[in-house]
Sequence to fold (329 residues):
Amino acid sequence: MTHVDPAVEKAHRDVLNLFRKSTAGDPAGLAAVCRAARDRLAQMPALAPNDPSTWTSYELITVDVQTLLGYLREVGVPSSESERFRTLLIRVLWYLCQAGRAELGVVLAENLRTDWVVQLGESHVHALDAARRLASCLHPLGESERARPVLQRILDLRSAKFGDDHPGTLLAACDLGKCLYLLRDYHGAFQLNTGTVRRCEQQLGKDHPTTILAVANLAGSLFGLGELETALRLYRDIHQRYLRVSGENSLAALNAEADIAITLHQLGDHEAARALNAALLPRFEKVAGKDYSGTENTRARLENNLRALGRDEEADEVHGGIPKFLPPP
Fold:
């Protein structure tokens, strides 16, 4: 269990003290307190929301943000004020998606996107970021069809404003490519992702996060089209890239290994898939906890591998904790 970052804990206490000192029935005073609280939260360090070690801190930040947004709306102070505060809110939305709290993420992202379109304009970078986080939270809820027009609109707006080869436009193309894959439009995804990979490699380089994401989307398209050997080769390449840029125990690297294991199983190499999932399970649990979706999915894959190998007794041990036959984390 990780601890709350001391700077986050101090900001939380400071915000509580601000509201304790506010005068009831004084709208102008409350508005001033809200602005002060907003500015205090915006001063916190920029913790990485895709790092599970920060999630305990983000739990507390999210509580403060939810409360403050309610007050801001009540007193008529725009949530768009202060670039640093908007950036904090975008990080909170990404945390909610990464940490398996997508339902709350959808609610907050929808509200922020609606407000910021009015206050900043639909093409503003942070209005587009809020829309992107909304789509990211819709996917794990099985609502990719609802996410598709959101992502298409982001791509259209970024392309019109910045051009097709701008990093923001390329990222938007990646997001739409993933959405098409999730909607099982494998041919459409393959066509979009092929062009996106080419442009990303030309504009950003092979190890840029957006390029790696584009290649992962292309691999998914190929997997969906039944081109499993080619998909496996790409997934292995993606894993090596994440090892270089993120480290072996980053969620990105672990998820890349999971894609390799899924493809191996689909190819019928159940033993190789089993060995990989057996190594992944304690690592996922150590990095993100036993209730994290990646941990649970790895446990389910390991059970399927074992049953495919006829090792039902070991498969029965998979649920509950780290099985006795696996190495310790």
Remarks:
- The chain is about 75% helix and 0% strand.
